[in-house]
Amino acid sequence: MRSFPLSSDRFDRRTFGQRFGLALIFVLLMLALALLSDRFLTPANLTNILRQTAINGIISAGMTLVILTGGIDLSVGSVLALSVTIGAALMKQGWPVELSVLAALATGAGLGCINGVLITLARIPPFIATLGMLTMARGLTLMYTQGQPITGFPAAFRWLGAGDIAGIPVPIALMLLVFVAGGFLLYRTSFGMQIYLLGDNPTAARLTGVPVNRLTVLVYTISGFCAALAGLILIARLDSAQPTIGLGYELNAIAAVVVGGASFSGGEGGLVGTLLGALLIETLNNGLNLLNVSSLWEQVVKGVVIALALLLYRAIGSRNSR
Amino acid sequence: MTSATPRLKLINVSKTFPGVQAVKSVSLEAYSQQILALVGENGAGKSTLMNIINGVVQPDSGSIMLDGVEVRIDSPRRAQSLGITMIHQELALIPELTVGQNMFLGREPSRGGWIDWNELYRQTQQVLDRLGIAISARAKIAELSIAEQQLVEIARALSYQARLIALDEPTSSLTDRETEILFRLVRQLRAEGVALIYISHRMEEIFALADRIAVMRDGELITAGPASEFTPQRVVQLMVGRELQPSASQPAQPRGEPILRATNLVAGKAVRGVSLTLHRGEIVGMAGLVGAGRTNVARLLFGADRLDQGEIWFEGKPVSIRSPRDAIRLGIGLVTEDRKAQGLFLKQSVRNNAGAGLLERLSRFGFVNFRALTQQVSDLTTRLRVRTPSLNQQVRNLSGGNQQKVIIARWLALQPKVLILDEPTRGVDVGAKADIHALIRELAAQGMAILMISSELPEILAVSDRILVMREGRITAELNRAEATQDRIMQAAVGQE
Ligand SMILES: Nc1ncnc2c1ncn2[C@@H]1O[C@H](COP(=O)(O)OP(=O)(O)OP(=O)(O)O)[C@@H](O)[C@H]1O
Ligand SMILES: [Mg+2]
């Protein structure tokens, strides 16, 4: 495949530095873990890391687009929960797997679309709009399920979590698919390029004829869709849909995007960074598990890593502006 | 005529950015009680040199002496403590804060550890009043016009006890009246013993103010000396390194059929019943004071603001332009006056900035034809002589004048039928300005209808076929090229006919 000549950040030293720095940290982390634990560098464990990454990775892909526009989607965890609850319930009622899956994806996309409409037409700031959606979608989920998990899905559905395509576990394949499709969308289409313009300077974007509202609605729709897709993989693997599923996932996704080098002010960052960010976080989790570090510490370590990544970017950024 | 030790002495200062040597071994002096004018083409390195003095940019080599003592200026804060302040080319105020908050940012007067807001606003108002600037200290920056913001910026720089003040194109968004205020301030400061460095592309200003003139070209200092040793022609020649064709006004082109007609446009208090017609192949200049409503009219025609009343006809049909997107689809373009806030995508490349409007046009099934995009953009940037090491350069790294050219390129790429230009040559050097004027004429000759808003009367007079003058939201005069003079325009603009 040809390189992306217009990817807005090619040859830009800062982004290059970020990405290189991130890749370097990643490699160092892998090395350290390989030395510390002989169970780390095994094919089974590495596959495991990728599988674990799939859920957060897919959500983060959608979140990347949102953050690139200068927005934020806090509702992904709840949207995920409501979507899979609907999908799971339909399956339990005997709907065909395919249709149930489609219904779940449509729910995710639909909720995302509502977010987008609230933000553009009702002019509610993204933070507030998606916070509202977070509460509402979670509330509906709890109401519908009465707090009870839905379990026991058809084998055809569980394939999403446990099956494989040509030797590649389905979750990993789907994650790759999402990132490749996302990459095309972001770096090859006018839609993708306009996302960068919108995030960089919304006023100028409007005055340049960028269809700001349409773009925003689409981006939140994609984010909702990604959340639903990730959720389906998750419940297929667990063979159960808890009403509290996806709680706090928005933070993991935001963390991956930010560690991946995107800036909250929009117009800066990309999917490659996000993928690396998601992998880094999951590798760290995995390593801490292998080393038998208490899961309480995991949170702390994660926080420290995010802070370090941001410091690194700050350092690179200021050095190059001199 | 100069005192013994210069206030500022630069010795062999150099600075290289990736792909560009912005400043090449420059040695230069600035004296107290003198105004040094620094001139040069867009991208010559003037702003970079000032950024070095102000601690924003670190030189790669060379040394800086302040009153005979070698200093290291590693941050703007350090520069401030040394008594060096700068008025930046691009506005650096925080729009959400008030004038006073901006003025005392980071050095707010306090009482018992708390910010003393009354004192802050009192001091701010004092500074503004002393400078004769009629703006409230409690006004929010976002509510001020660009010109007013510029004055606030100047007032802020002056509120420090400065030994050296650098002004980077301070008048590029000021009208004559505000420019007068600024000149008065600058002269007053000179008398108080401050050393001033003044960057401008306007020869009249330079010769009105400067005691000494320094010319830069391609990062090098070509020459420096007393202003009396220069003439405007000589300065321009030194700047560009070649003889420049004067942008002579050409005979008026025969105009084509009407393409855009607006009747009785009304929007709030800014536009109170404006009717105008633009014809193919005609350049209409729009003059008036800042705040007369010129930009508002442009924004209404472009669908950027909502119309309260009035009708717009395009190519003989009534149209409803509800967004810039609608306008662009019809074939209307607008180069906005505030390039940083309304035009540039600072973090994106030169190519994405110049090609921003082309993305959809050059797509099939959503996929952009990047080869065609690059081709078109590079044709235009070459034609406009945009100085950039590559099209992948982030646009924020370009000099101010080159950023302006990138935005003009963006609209030319769309080949609109009607092009509205709001202060199109803001911050553009003499040579490039002549290029842009020639380009505007060429576009008109090809049949484009042009509406050019400008606060520079010579520019209006040199380029326009017909001139509209606005005052307080209305068109107060319409003059054809033959009858237009600076005086008549000014009279219509201030309302003494
Ligand atoms: N941070 C930066 N990174 C890379 N290149 C830069 C940077 N800042 C300036 N340059 C380059 O250095 C050169 C000099 O720029 P500078 O802004 O000093 O020009 P200038 O003389 O002020 O021009 P103008 O009249 O247009 O304002 C330009 O080619 C510009 O692109
Ligand atoms: Mg400059």
Automatic annotation (TrEMBL), chain B:
Membrane topology: Peripheral membrane protein
One Gene Ontology MF term: ATP hydrolysis activity
Primary residence: membrane
The keyword Cell membrane is annotated on this UniProt entry: yes
Pfam family, one: ABC_tran
Cellular localisation: Cell membrane
Any Gene Ontology CC annotation: plasma membrane
Residues in ABC transporter domain copies: 8-243, 254-497
Keywords for the protein's UniProt record, in alphabetical order: ATP-binding, Cell membrane, Membrane, Nucleotide-binding, Repeat, Sugar transport, Translocase, Transport
Protein name: D-xylose ABC transporter ATP-binding protein
